[in-house]
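step=predict obj=biotin--[biotin carboxyl-carrier protein] ligase n=286
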Amino acid sequence: MWTDLNRPPLDADALRKALVRGDGEGSAGGDPRAFWSRLDVVQETGSTNADLLARAAHEDCDRHVLLAEFQGSGRGRHSRAWVSPPQAQIAVSALLTMPGMSVGDMGWLPLLTGVAVVDAVRAVAKVPAELKWPNDVLIDGRKVAGILAEVATTTPDPAVVVGIGINVTLARDELPVPHATSLLLEGAEVTDRNTLVRAVLRAIADRWQQWHDTNWDVTDLADAYRARCGTLGQRVRAELPGGTELLGIATDIDTEGRVVIAPEGRADTVAVSAGDITHLRPVRKE
């Protein structure tokens, strides 16, 4: 029995029936047409990403999903901590193998995941979510979700564990940083985590299948990302590896998933593949 009625536990059996193929391990009578092969829910772990990576080192984990009610050592980009009270967040990782994909295109998987998360929370929670390059999800400029992808293997076929953290019912005094938010604080119509998990995992599956069916062509995926990316058109500061900084307008996302910036005072553009992006207020014209 849980003590907080506003934060009920995930229903692992119901999630398996909705999302997992019926002939897979842990399927619990799942739909044979479903995309995912296994789904587990644990009460507590350090990191769902780390757990799936460890599992993948000694068994076939393609399309495995792992959710945790509490994640004590969750990681974001650059090893930043991502924690929340138990059952107030969706902490989920999934391993996906991309047969025949070039290693150079693997970086599109976290961007695809961002598109899927935005679509799912827009459709179910009815909030105006958008992407901040490369893979943060914002609502009115505040971070509600983050995505971290880690390579499990590059041969014979690339396999990546992609982890997602979504703040669902965190109160304002529970937020990890001032610029964070939660679906509850943003007035979401739905904060039921079972409903949200189903929507997110189905959206990822649909996007992955579409990408696979084009033989990993990124044209449509890049268009979908651009359409949901709130970074485009913004004045931004890019903090680049090595401690350098770039100020300018974000003008595009190229076919390699890089953000293209038109630097202030220059006529050229710069494609940034790694770095922290901050959305800045426009410069006032006197």
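step=describe
The mean pLDDT is 91.
step=end
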